[in-house]
């Protein structure tokens, strides 16, 4: 019997720009844009942002994902799209409205993922952060995050193709601050439920969505748990190019049984507390399967199915790189906007070339210039087809 669990793809690097996905250094988005503003000014930065958001992901991209048989997309976004004082008039809504209209046309559910929030929920670049998670020590920033979710939930409370709110991507707090994270989640649930009782709320575990035991006290109707899994990291991210799967990685024998053992505590948590587990992120660094990465991908997907986990693959689209997860669509060439030989890499080349090469950069962002990794797609499609979400839909071509 088919089921209706989530099986889909992340649209990473779009509403929050990440350096490695654009072929460059992992500096925070705010740092890149500050440099851009210093050179070209605020008006040109607005034009740059609009060009990027309207060309990096288009309706055709959502159609591609639908044709693969996926039933959902996860949309990571940056709080900066909504400004320092979020309101219903924030420009971020024009992009969320657009992606929801595309998803409705192609019958894909949408999960909205707050990937970077005020002050930063973890110290990393993908939280648009300069190295310190200030959110946990500043109640004023927490209140801004509550307000942002209230505004988003109010706008989309009746949206059928919105599946839910992933309220905070990969929080990181020390053990002594865990009560602050719990209270933060409790307040977010309360604020959202005041305006929206319909959609799922996803809570991610501590330490980059890995530790979830503390969340048991927050479980209630329409609250699901989200985890991220990239283990073993030195293999999936290709930090150590001398290891392969199955094989000895970090002095541990990693094979399908080891993956199952690693994921089993999450499965037992889901059974004990009768809660759905959503793997919001997982993925591989693809290197022509020379290290068994496709075998790993197939094995972990089989275990997700065995354990009845929902999941979204990281990520849809990226400049090909030798570390970190690659995109399903990969940019392989070495254009002036990539310049793998350096000394300036990837997106930081825009700073010098935007004035003279604006049209070429905009064209470069389009998916037509990216290579579809059919070997990854074939594996994903095999599992996406198990879902009943898409059985009756007619994809608009």
Structure description:
- The structure is a single chain.
- Strands 1-2-3-4-5-6-9-10 form an eight-stranded parallel beta barrel. Strands 11-12-13 form a three-stranded mixed beta sheet, with no helix packed on it. It has a two-stranded antiparallel sheet with strand order 7-8.
- The model is unreliable at 392-397 (pLDDT under 50).
- Helix 9 packs parallel to helix 10.
- 39% of the residues lie in helices and 15% in strands.
- The chain is an alpha/beta fold and 397 residues long.
- It contains twelve helices and 13 strands.
Distinctive features:
12 helices
Summarize the structure.
The protein has helices at residues 29-40, 42-56, 59-67, 92-106, 139-156, 178-195, 206-209, 233-236, 256-273, 293-307, 350-364, 374-384, and strands spanning 7-10, 72-78, 109-116, 162-166, 200-204, 223-228, 247-249, 252-254, 277-281, 310-313, 317-319, 329-331, 371-372. The chain is of the alpha/beta class and 397 residues long.
| Main sheet attributes: strand count, strand direction, barrel closure | 8 strands, parallel, barrel
Radius of gyration: 20 Å
- Any idea what the shape is? globular
Which structural class best describes the helix and strand composition? alpha/beta
| Helix share, percent | 25-40%
What's the order of the H and E elements?
EHHHEHEHEHEHEHEEHEHEEEHEH
């Amino acid at each position: 019997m088919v089921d209706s669990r989530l099986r889909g793809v992340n649209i990473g690097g779009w509403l929050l720009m990440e350096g490695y996905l654009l072929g460059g250094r992992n500096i925070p988005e705010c740092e890149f844009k500050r440099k851009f503003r210093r050179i070209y000014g605020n008006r040109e930065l607005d034009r740059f942002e609009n060009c990027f958001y309207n060309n990096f992901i288009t309706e055709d991209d959502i159609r591609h994902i639908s044709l693969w048989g996926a039933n959902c997309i996860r949309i990571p976004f940056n709080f900066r799209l909504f400004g320092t004082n979020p309101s219903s008039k924030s420009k971020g809504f024009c992009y969320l409205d657009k992606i929801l209209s595309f998803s409705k046309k192609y019958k894909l559910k949408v999960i909205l993922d707050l990937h970077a929030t005020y002050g930063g929920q973890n110290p990393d670049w993908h939280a648009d952060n300069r190295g310190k998670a200030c959110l946990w020590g500043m109640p004023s920033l927490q209140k801004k995050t509550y307000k942002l979710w209230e505004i988003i939930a109010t706008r989309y409370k009746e949206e059928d193709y919105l599946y839910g709110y992933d309220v905070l991507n990969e929080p990181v707090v020390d053990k002594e601050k865990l009560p602050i994270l719990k209270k933060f989640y409790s307040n977010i649930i309360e604020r959202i439920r005041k305006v929206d009782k319909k959609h799922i709320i996803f809570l991610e575990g501590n330490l980059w969505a890995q530790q979830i035991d503390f969340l048991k006290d927050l479980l209630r109707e329409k609250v699901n748990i989200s985890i991220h899994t990239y283990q073993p990291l030195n293999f999936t991210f290709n930090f150590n190019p001398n290891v392969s799967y199955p094989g000895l990685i970090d002095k541990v024998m990693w094979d399908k049984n080891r993956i199952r053992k690693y994921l089993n505590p999450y499965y037992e948590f889901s059974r004990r507390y009768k809660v759905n587990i959503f793997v919001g992120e997982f993925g591989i660094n693809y290197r022509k399967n020379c290290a068994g990465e496709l075998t790993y991908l197939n094995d972990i997907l089989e275990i997700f199915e065995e354990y009845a986990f929902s999941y979204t693959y990281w990520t849809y689209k990226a400049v090909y790189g030798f570390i970190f997860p690659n995109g399903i669509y990969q940019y392989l060439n070495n254009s002036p906007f990539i310049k793998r030989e350096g000394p300036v890499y990837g997106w930081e080349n825009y700073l010098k070339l935007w004035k003279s090469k604006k049209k070429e950069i905009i064209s470069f962002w389009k998916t037509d210039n990216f290579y579809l990794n059919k070997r990854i797609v074939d594996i994903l499609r095999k599992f996406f087809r198990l879902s009943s979400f898409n059985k009756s839909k007619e994809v608009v071509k």
